[in-house]
């Protein structure tokens, strides 16, 4: 009888242990499921925020464009307003319109010449994004001529030359950036990469040498 009682007790203990293992396993699985759910909710929340933000930015740009276009139609638009309208069109990716208004801003410009460098830079970006690299380069060169320490325009000029496969001119542009801003995080890695690439082509005629 004692042996039978002991066997039943052991069996009951074993059943309890098995149940505990099942419960722990279920809790662990539930924890994983909750983690996945929280991650999914976080991603959905971030995605929703991004979409809403994009819609609000787009709406703000549309309103700005509408107001500025009305000012232009009235004939009372200043050079600054043409520049702002061109910048809005650039952000909306309407590159031909951006080019048109930025050119008009340059024609009407009556402010400091150094500020005009920003208009030339924006015009260069518009041409570059419209795949007109030669015209883009001309605008960036004009921008740095007006404002020699304009590192953004130098970076854009270097990028345009690199896209055109004119590596030596690109290298020179990024080196100019580092003269004015030695720690520039855009120009430094591009300069180092171009130094290696120009070294690899040493002795091989490059486009910049043919001009």
UniProtKB/TrEMBL annotation:
PROSITE patterns: TPR, TPR_REGION
Transmembrane segments: 36-56
TPR repeat ranges per the UniProt record: 117-150, 151-184
Gene3D superfamilies registered for this protein in UniProt: Tetratricopeptide repeat domain
Alphabetical keyword list: Membrane, Repeat, TPR repeat, Transmembrane, Transmembrane helix
PANTHER family referenced in this protein's UniProt entry, alphabetically: LIPOPOLYSACCHARIDE ASSEMBLY PROTEIN B, TPR REPEAT-CONTAINING PROTEIN PA4667
Name used for this protein in its record: Uncharacterized protein
